[in-house]
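Take a protein:
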Amino acid sequence: MKKVKKVFVAAGCIALAAAFGITANKAYIRKESEKYNLIVLDTTAVPEPVAGPVIEADIELSEVTMHYAVYGDKGHDLILVHGNGGSKESLREAAQYLANDYKVYVPESRCHGQSSDPGEISYDLMAKDLKEFIEAMGMEKPYLMGHSDGGINALTLAYTYPELLGGFISCGANTVPETFKPYFTIAVKLSDIFRPDKLNEMMLTLPQMNEELLSKIICPAYIVAGENDIMWLSDTVFIHECIKDSKIAIIKNGDHSSYISKDGKQAYVLAKEFFDSIV
């Protein structure tokens, strides 16, 4: 009981410290964000979401049975990749809007949702799974938009298999665990006390990206984060600066999920503007 009590006291202190830190640094965060394409996504002209999915199935890959959904049946292939602990449902709304213009695939990563758990998980393994998924579906130069761990997956896929993608958007990715803001790292560690989980362990130890790896990316890349995201802005900028000719945007007043998994309209605008710019 004493251990539990101490954990709750610590959690309360962390929450207060995080709130104070956000308030105290708000002006500084805004000033820094304005240097790196601080934007507001205009959703006034977004079309109505489509019904769906039109397909929901499993596919056997070399190490995992991957569950996936497909929305729409026209336009360029676009893969949406959810974050840590998520599923295809995390990006359902984004998929329904994007299906107006793309054939949208929403796979569930290994150890997530209805996909199988082969016992191991890492960003390298998930990138391999995605490569196999793309090949099994017969896609050629698909676009990819990933959120959080999905954003890390996008980067990992793009530098491991440089010729595979036609372009990607990485939302809310970090290069190393040390670039998370302290309140988030502590929250994950506290969560792991009550429920040890390999997904938490992955966030606390991976990824381990560097300039050498990121500089291998050659396809069009858009590096995006929320103004109040869970990782430091400097890491988002580092990713952008390591990838030749990449674009960067910071979503004004956005947090880690507000513009993608929590708002399909904003996800639509973000994706459409970038992917339509690819020649």
About this structure: Residues 52 and 127 are 26 Å apart (CA to CA). Residues 1-11 have pLDDT under 50 and may be disordered. The chain is about 40% helix and 15% strand. The longest helix spans residues 2-24.
